[in-house]
Amino acid sequence: MFGNITDVPGVKVGHRENKEGITGCTVLVVEKGAVCGVDVRGSAPGTRETDALDPINEIDRVHAICLAGGSAFGLDAATGVMQFLEEQGIGVDAGVAKIPIVPSAVLFDLFIGDPHARPTALMGYEAAQAAQVGSFPNGNVGAGYGATVGKLAGPEFAMKGGLGSASYAGKDGLVAGSIVAVNAVGDVKDPTTRKILAGARDTHSGQWVDCCAYLEQHAQSEALAGTNTTIGVVAMNAKLTKAEAKKIAQLTQNALARTIYPVHTMLDGDTIFVLGTGDQSYALDYLGQLATKVMEEAILAGIKAAERLADVESYTSIQKTST
């Protein structure tokens, strides 16, 4: 196993970055289609095609998911993904054309790079074209390239976020995988020790600000609306209905609650997609437990692999200076 979401049969992943602009996108391709559900828990989301995933609506399979930086501008990357899939003959057969279904979610990463550099349709196309099964790095990659965390006291206290992925082999052939771009307004903590791994930090003193304590003390945030968001995907080779996929997406949000403080705020747009690629049924609570577990691991992997970028410290950089 590769230890990432491509361990789930039927899932391929590709990334593209604009390293000068400090932004990027990550594309998950499911060529044969997958049942998909979504849960949007944050109050400042940037999404595309999520209404189609409502269990009461007709479309029941998607062909890719695009995660991107660039705030709402980054939704344009999904257009390139659609173009690539159409060229491959992948999509819903509408008689006169095959229409790829590509839900998308974006995060705000305009603070540390060029605010006029955003993921483009070309970047989405290239990420989809590059999608494959295999190893890829965590940290400053794809949709997590320009991600930051710990902005509640103001962006000057932020540390580097990043992209993380993980997988887990369960019972009876089940494989669950996750991928997430961590760009939260809050701090990211170790769920076991509750120690901050990355978050609001005073670079002069080297002390943690602690976003929850700051919010309690000042009764307000210094972050701007819509400038955060953690977005991710869980995939599993299980047989799911759209309603089941949506419920698992809701349960998966517990992983964010266990690692990000505060979470699901008015300043975040936290969005989780769930894909079912298999034909074997499992107990829903079992699937929800594994989805939560593997998402939690992906969040930690993304934070622990992130590297210092544009003078923004990271988990790895402060570990180096403290040893």
Automatic annotation (TrEMBL):
<dbReference type="InterPro" id="IPR016117">
    <property type="entry name" value="ArgJ-like_dom_sf"/>
</dbReference>
<comment type="similarity">
    <text>Belongs to the peptidase S58 family.</text>
</comment>
<dbReference type="Pfam" id="PF03576">
    <property type="entry name" value="Peptidase_S58"/>
</dbReference>
<protein>
    <submittedName>
        <fullName>P1 family peptidase</fullName>
    </submittedName>
</protein>
<dbReference type="InterPro" id="IPR005321">
    <property type="entry name" value="Peptidase_S58_DmpA"/>
</dbReference>
